[in-house]
Amino acid sequence: NAGVMQNPRHLVRRRGQEARLRCSPMKGHSHVYWYRQLPEEGLKFMVYLQKENIIDESGMPKERFSAEFPKEGPSILRIQQVVRGDSAAYFCASSQQYNSPLHFGNGTRLTVT
Amino acid sequence: ELKVEQNPLFLSMQEGKNYTIYCNYSTTSDRLYWYRQDPGKSLESLFVLLSNGAVKQEGRLMASLDTKARLSTLHITAAVHDLSATYFCAVEGYGGATNKLIFGTGTLLAVQP
Description:
The structure holds two protein chains of two kinds.
Chain A: E1 5-7, E2 10-13, E3 19-24, E4 31-37, E5 43-50, E6 53-56, E7 65-68, E8 75-79, E9 88-95, E10 103-104, E11 108-112
Parallel strand pairs in A: 2-11
Antiparallel strand pairs in A: 1-3, 3-8, 4-5, 4-9, 5-6, 7-8, 9-10, 9-11
Chain B: E1 4-7, E2 10-14, E3 19-25, E4 32-37, E5 43-49, E6 55-58, E7 61-66, E8 71-76, E9 85-93, E10 100-103, E11 107-112
Parallel strand pairs in B: 2-11
Antiparallel strand pairs in B: 1-3, 3-8, 4-5, 4-9, 6-7, 7-8, 9-10, 9-11
């Protein structure tokens, strides 16, 4: 049973470009969470999604960031017009049910030049 | 707002020594997690503590939870170099979604030979 798959592992973007990060949850998991880790900090919650629904986006910046989890396909975290401050590791986690333990992916490390 | 504090932030210790990492949190929560993160890698789940007085042990690591004091400890016994990593505690936050984990800032553990 494959774990949570994130791609790409590393992503380099110039300022002003768009970044798309993908997350395929574990098989049978319909709950997806995105976290951001700035250098030498802990993980910060961004958004919690179920299939086709955003449940909690209280940690998402108000502008330029969006997330989706369509009926078919992976969850996508999209960052428009990236800035240097967006450079971070972005982790996706999934769970089977509402209060099941989270399983984390290996993360996508975004570098904005 | 739920806040999670860890101390120390950095811990350098010699092999064979014992030490404790502390995790304090500010409001009531039903679950506390400990994770390990190696540089550039994802989070590995170590322990889930569900109730007051819970104690779990795995190898040289032992975690405990005191919900009344809102304190968890991660005790390291006879440290070895392989334990060098960053350790995070995380607490479930409410007011939006269960599994919205609030992470501490992490403790970077360096075990010197």
